[in-house]
Amino acid sequence: AQSVTQLGSHVSVSEGALVLLRCNYSSSVPPYLFWYVQYPNQGLQLLLKYTSAATLVKGINGFEAEFKKSETSFHLTKPSAHMSDAAEYFCAVSLKAAGNKLTFGGGTRVLVKP
Amino acid sequence: EPEVTQTPSHQVTQMGQEVILRCVPISNHLYFYWYRQILGQKVEFLVSFYNNEISEKSEIFDDQFSVERPDGSNFTLKIRSTKLEDSAMYFCASSPDRFDTQYFGPGTRLTVL
Predict the structure, then answer these.
(1) Which of A11, A63, B15, B57 could connect to B61 by a Cys-Cys bridge, CB 3.0–4.6 Å?
(2) How far apart are CA A109 and CA B91, in angstroms?
């Protein structure tokens, strides 16, 4: 069975500072990995996904994530935070061998300070 | 841009009542899903649906739950006799193919009193 752990339920960053959201997964087979973002009163929107191609994945809004198999990690970064990045971010994993259900981490709420 | 829609946005019901949550997936998508998030907990998979039948379901999805695609556009989740612990945000999602990106709706907040 797969699982996902997001370190830190809340992260506060200053506008213009680096955003780093941590995600570790456990899986017995190569996973597909995702980051979703949820803005207030909206659904989950895909930021980026890793599906066994390039290990550095670029997504929307300047975000990127790097798949590190040796560390079982898929951390999300953005070099310079913007006020509009304030949202909740979810890491998720799915296994091709286990259908397409997504297993989510607990989410990290990002606060951006001016 | 096409999007998944869900109605109602908020549903309040009495314990023991039946509720139906409605979703309109993206029109050319073939796979449909329901997830839920109890306040303060993780988003959890409930069920996936393809070709008019359930393709996978979780342990949460017991006999009190059912899903249906009654026409060419709607996808519904029915809870026959709601319990207090069914209070949660319910998300519908759809994907064009089995291992493709899942697109989520805004959710329905269900409150059981």
Answers:
(1) B57
(2) 19
